[in-house]
Amino acid sequence: MNKIITSAIMVIALSAGAHAGGFERSDQSVAVLFKEGRYLEFAVRAGFPEVDGVATATSPTPGVESGNIAENFVDFYAAFKFDINERFSAAIVYDEPFATDIAYPTSGYFLSGANAELKIRELAGVLQYNLPSSMAVFGGGLSVYGGPRLSYTIANAEIPTSNGYSIDTDNQFGFGFLGGVAWERPELGMRVALTYNSEIKNDLDSTETLANGTVVNGETALDTPQSLTLEFQTGLNPKTLLFGSVRWVEWGDFTIKPPLFSSAAGNPPLAFFPDDTITYRLGLGRRLTEDFSIFGDVSYEPESGGQTGNLTPRDGFLSFGVGGTYDFEKVSVTLGARYALLGDADTVPAPGGPNVAQFRDNSAFFVGARLGFDLN
């Protein structure tokens, strides 16, 4: 059963949130906490999105195509889990959960040459306490866990067609926390874990400029949203595992409003999202031999139906992931891939504004690789 459980965890970490709401690239899973003893893992995730749209009649360039605006990317992940004693265990997790790389090709499109880069790297320390067996529920053990999160934010953007506008920010650290509770029966491959990640507030020192020489130094708020994730798994038989998750993220309150950009353009945000998102995932893992397991899953995020900004032109998705894990004694190697159909989106310059572009029939492809080391 353990090999099947490993496979289920791998598919989540390799490509779970690389296409989810807002600019998520990871679902911030703490599944590594449930590995036995000491365990070390490294992973790399690569994305190849294809996102293009057409300007509408209410835009400055009706009928002009944007070209592919989404850049390819590579993200990294690492985690180390260890036991302190019979009751306490801990993990250190490095992830890159939020990022976006948008670049509009040089063309006749009304956002020609516009680009935006946002990268948020995060280091979390998690302490887990396993409650005494006398407090078991339905034959399963309970544990609680939590700890601090340290984030590092890099952000800049250029919109040449808006009076030569650009913004550069100083890289900044931010602080938050996570907490959760889990129930598990390892002998049956059963586990349910509920994890909360807090909002992390950032007031970035920013420099905004216009083509006419105007320069404004100030602060730009960029707060990553809070989230709640329910992860579950259960063994269907000795060789098959059912797994899944439900994740809520408070994207509806997210905005980026640099002072100069907002004042010069009538107080709109530079970036925003219309609604909170809920992402669903369901999958199966199957052990084919003592050393080799395969897995597959389906993920779905409903379209909100609201208008989106020009730096995030998609709304919901449907994706399919597959992969396999091979164990070499105390080392495991996992490869995974995912294909996502991105939801159609209508973009606006500001919430409630006119529809200036339509993005239809877009997609993304993701691959990942992971090495796991049993250090017991």
TrEMBL record:
Question: Which Pfam families did the record assign?
Answer: Toluene_X (PF03349)
As for subcellular location, the record says: Cell outer membrane
Q: How does it sit in the membrane?
A: Multi-pass membrane protein
Give the signal peptide, or none: 1-20
Location (main, coarse): membrane
Keywords attached to this Swiss-Prot or TrEMBL record, sorted alphabetically, are:
Cell outer membrane, Membrane, Signal, Transmembrane, Transmembrane beta strand
Gene3D superfamilies from the entry? Outer membrane protein transport protein (OMPP1/FadL/TodX)
GO cellular component assignments: cell outer membrane
Gene Ontology MF: a single term: long-chain fatty acid transporting porin activity
Q: At the top level of its lineage, which domain of life is listed?
A: Bacteria
Task: Write down the InterPro entries for this protein, in alphabetical order.
Answer: OMPP1/FadL/TodX
Q: Which family does it belong to?
A: Belongs to the OmpP1/FadL family.
Protein name, as recorded: Long-chain fatty acid transport protein
In its UniProt entry, the species of origin is given as Rubrimonas cliftonensis
